[in-house]
Every structure is written in C-alpha cells, then in structure tokens.
Amino acid sequence: MAHVQGHYKAIAQEYDFFYDHMYEELAEISCKWLKLLPTDSLADIGGGTGAISSLIWKKANLGQPVLVVDPSPDMLEPASKREGVLTLEATFDDLINSYPHIISKYNKFVCIGCIHLFPHLEASMAAFYKLLKPGDQLLIVEHPEVLVWKDLKTRFNSLDEIEEYLKQAGFSVEERGEESHSHSYSREKYFYSLRHRCYTALSLLTDKEIELGIKKLDETVFKGEPFKELTDYYYMIVATKT
Known about the structure:
This protein is of the alpha/beta class and 242 residues long. The protein has helices at residues 2-11, 15-34, 51-59, 73-79, 92-98, 100-103, 121-131, 159-169, 187-195, 207-222; strands at 42-45, 66-70, 85-89, 108-112, 137-142, 172-186, 227-240.
C-alpha cells in the first residue's frame, strides 16, 4: 500500500481540482441512498479532503458534524477547515482495531470510491460488521473500471462482486443499483488530471503508458474537441447490520 500513500501525498493539493465537478452529485445521491435525517450521525470512511462530507452535512441538515476518516494527513488538512466536519487520521483497519468506541457513536457510514484500496477487504468488512449496532447502515459507492486502462483491474467489475464481500461479512443488502451523472469535461483539464495520476491506479503506470491511453481517449472520445459531454457511473449498495 506504499504506492497508495505516496499517491495521495503527491496529489492532495490538486485533488479537489480533479474531482470537484462530482461533489454535488455524490453528496446528493449519498443523502438519498442513506435516507439521511437530521438525527443521523455519519462517518465518511476514506473521506479525503472532506468536501463531499461537508456538502452532505449541509444537504441533510445533520445535527452533528460528519466524521471524515482518512489515513492521509495531506488529504485531511483541508478537511479540518471545512464546516460540519471532524477528522480522524486512520486507515479502515486502524478505525476497526483502535477506535471501536468511535464507531459506536455513529449509525450511518459511507465509503465513496475507496474500498477497492482496502488491502484486506473481506477480513476488514467482517471485523467492521461485528462492531456495528443492529440497524446501522453502510453505503458503498464505487466507480466501474477506469476507462482505457481496464486491464489494471483495480476496481470492481459488477455490483455482484461488491455485494458478495458485504454478504460474506454478515450484512443484509437492502438496496443496490447504479447512478449516473453527465458533465461537460474540458479536454485540457481531463488530460492534465490523467497525467498527474488523478486515479490511484494510474500511479502504477509509466509516463509512456499514460500518454498511450490519453492518445486513445483523444482519438476515440474527445476527437480533438475542447469539451466533451461524458457520463460518470457509480455502483451503489446500501448494507445493514441485522
């Protein structure tokens, strides 16, 4: 996981620049799928810069701040300054092993685009499940495989694959499906983001491999146009401790 830690340290200052076009939509669908009420208490595991967490806090009118849990101090630095956010520097396994008393304070949890980075996902989910109270809910939001570089296999191929991990841990899957959001992407910004490894998986590629992928994207998707309407897809699963 050393490359993951190094990756987030390298991109922390530009992370929001890479992804800010997704934040409003991700906050909206997180509120919807978790059916958040002002009385709920939410922890955002792998919440990074806290931008989405702060938006969720505002949209759901939560009565207490969202806890953003992330192992990167560089990512948490901006999170600590956001409205409606508390921070905890910890990996998912750290949270389970060292902070079970903190887990017990929350009844809703969200993981957005991060469980594919957990090194021991099956064991970690099982341990996490045991610490939850009956009725506690976990929302998983994941992107399908990265366009062009699908052979990296760093994400999930289907909702079934994610659901299997949750069921093996003991969760009851209450709801599952997909969401999508269309956005006008700037060719210049998108290619800049790819060259600077906006996706964790891209940190495993050489500059030459990145450029080959960008060339393919330009030829098949952007076709030299300065802007292109693209659609982001999200796998959504709500799991409950029974």
